[in-house]
Amino acid sequence: SYTVNAYSRDQLALLENIANLAAIAIEKANLHQETVEKSRQIEARNKELDDFTYVVSHDLKEPLISVEGYAKIIKQEYSAGFDTAANEYMKSILDSCGHMKKLIEELLQLSRVGKLAEQKQRLSLTRIIGEVLEELRFTIRERRARMMVSEGLPEILGVEQHIKIVFRNLISNGLKFSGQDVPQISIDATLQGTLVEVAVSDKGIGIPEEFHEKIFMIFQRLHKKEEFEGTGAGLTIVRKIIEAHGGTIRVRSAEGQGATFIFTLPRADQKEHQP
User: Fold this and answer.
1) Highest mean pLDDT pick, 36-45, 56-65, 137-146
2) Among the listed residues 246, 249, 253, 251, the one whose alpha carbon sits nearest the alpha carbon of residue 267
3) What is the pLDDT of residue 236?
4) In the chain, which residue ranges form alpha helices assigned H by DSSP?
5) Rounded-to-integer distance, Cα 36 and Cα 51, Å
6) HSE-up of residue 126 (Cα within 13 Å, Cβ side)
7) 121: enclosing H helix or E strand
């Protein structure tokens, strides 16, 4: 004969709790694995998209240069016999070539952000901004813009050419979207733990709240090309660069009240200031 050892109510409750905890742990492990796999798939798709963008943009560049070159030859050698309409058509061709060249260059920039693996280095924001302002000096002078850059800006960790693209795009937007007023652009930066928070502000036409997210999407334009030139890729490139540096970017704006782009970058001496 044999005896059956009956479990007490407390023991059964304990076993049930253990089983429930084990089930939760297994479910969490499965969810984690699914998340890792989905992240890997997204990363692979993004790489494929970057590669595709690079190849297509590169392949488009050469024939476009040929089209533009032939158009310039035709204009130079035969424009004397053109009527008004023909001159307008030729101008439209050359303007379109210029727009396409800029678009292709920005697409190449976008694809290169994920490809370049330069080591981040210690950078002076004051120097970077100063050099970008020097590059834009003719536009700034032509628009009689007022540029205000805070003194004693902190240093950051970053890839220099990428950080210059960020400031060049944001400052150019501030100059472009100033409306009829004299552009006023201010740049400031503050320390936020291991990060530097940068604010680039203008007093231009502003951005309606419903477009605050859309403006960072590729080819999203709030205005017609006839009103403001551009490709609609600039802010997408800016966001991708900021995120590649481990930062975030957002805009604070209202229609007719200017815009402030706020983004974060790694602080140069962040290891000394970790909590």
Assistant:
1) 137-146
2) 246
3) 85
4) 9-78, 84-115, 125-135, 137-143, 160-176, 234-244
5) 22
6) 6
7) strand 121-124
Contact 166, 238 (CB under 8 A): yes
The residue written with tokens 């492990």 in the block is 29
Phi/psi of residue 129, nearest 5 degrees = -65, -40
Give the pLDDT confidence score for residue 191 in this predicted structure: 93
CA triple 40-45-47, angle to 5 deg: 95
Backbone φ, ψ for residue 125 (5° rounding): -60, -40
Average pLDDT over residues 62-70: 80
The whole-number pLDDT of residue 228 equals: 45
Q: Which residues contact 48 (CB under 8 A, 6 or more apart)?
A: none
Helix (H, G, I), strand (E, B) or coil at 251: strand
Which range, of 92-101, 104-113, 138-147, 257-266, averages the lowest pLDDT? 104-113
CA distance 204 to 201: 9
255-273 b/e (C-beta count within 10 Å ≥ 16 → b)? eeebbbbebbbbbbeeeee
How many Å apart are CA 270 and CA 182, to the nearest integer? 38
Lateral strand order in the sheet of 146-149: 146-149, 184-192, 195-202, 259-266, 249-253
Q: Which pLDDT score is estimated for 225?
A: 47
Residues sharing a CB contact under 8 Å with residue 22, sequence separation 6 or more, in sequence order:
none
Count Cβ atoms within 10 A of the Cβ of residue 25 and give its class: 0-12 exposed, 13-18 middle, 19 or more buried. exposed
